[in-house]
UniProtKB/TrEMBL annotation:
Transmembrane stretches, start-end: 240-263
Organism lineage: Eukaryota, Metazoa, Chordata, Craniata, Vertebrata
Organism this protein belongs to: Sinocyclocheilus anshuiensis
Keyword Electron transport set for record: no
Protein name: Immunoglobulin domain-containing protein
Domain (Immunoglobulin) ranges: 19-121, 128-232
Superkingdom classification of source: Eukaryota
Pfam family, one: V-set
Alphabetical keyword list: Membrane, Signal, Transmembrane, Transmembrane helix
Amino acid sequence: MCKLVMLLCCLICVSGADGVSVSVMEGDSVTLHTDVETNQQENIKWYFNNTLIARINGNLSDTCTDVQCNEGTERFRDRLQLDNQTGSLTIMNINTTHSEKYTLQVIRGSNNETIFNVTVIDVPAAGMKRKAVTEGESVTLDTPEEKKTNDVMAWFFNDILIAEITGDQSKICTDDQCDERFRDRLKLDNQTGSLIITNIRSTDSGLYNLKIKSSRNRYSTTSIKSFTVSVTDSGPSSTAVAGICAAVAVVLLVVAAVGVIYYHRRSSIKGEYHLHIV
């Protein structure tokens, strides 16, 4: 009877035989959530396969060193972050070598384990998208896919937050926040999250980053897409060209008039000279 009770306890403590399936694109970040609030009586441990990679013991927390985690491969160098409040684990700039089983162990009187089966999808390096546009035109910075209900999207221009969509709510930076750079010239597509810049100027040239945070069951992913925008001078406007042409015409007329006057004066002087000789 005692053995049966112990077996039942072990089965209850494991959150699902198959665990939580996690799919993430290479280069993104993923956060594996504990769904608990830690206190000093709790002990939280994270394992990659059978290797301890992070832990919280009371009010102390630490992640493994490269030697402890990587066994010479430097698999997790500068990639792990541990939330001291929840014990959630974030793996940054993830790659295919991180595709394996992650085990969360929460000890609070009894052992409670959750298994995360992480699959990292290998994708071709998209690199930074480049946009070349002429001053005065409009440009659209497209999102890689249609926005999902729980997605949080944030647009940055040279590390300054300029636009954000949370659920059905969108927000564009005020003039003070943007230094009046984008006054009345930013638009957000609430369906896709794409950013539109109208009447673009040379001062709008620079780096634009889109940060997308997607929440799923027991985990969330964060991806960053980059755009570099180059704005070229459109040259003088038609009005300016007309003005320049008019000015050139006036100058030519003045030069012609001066030439005619000079010619007549020279002719007049020569005529007087011949008259005196005779």
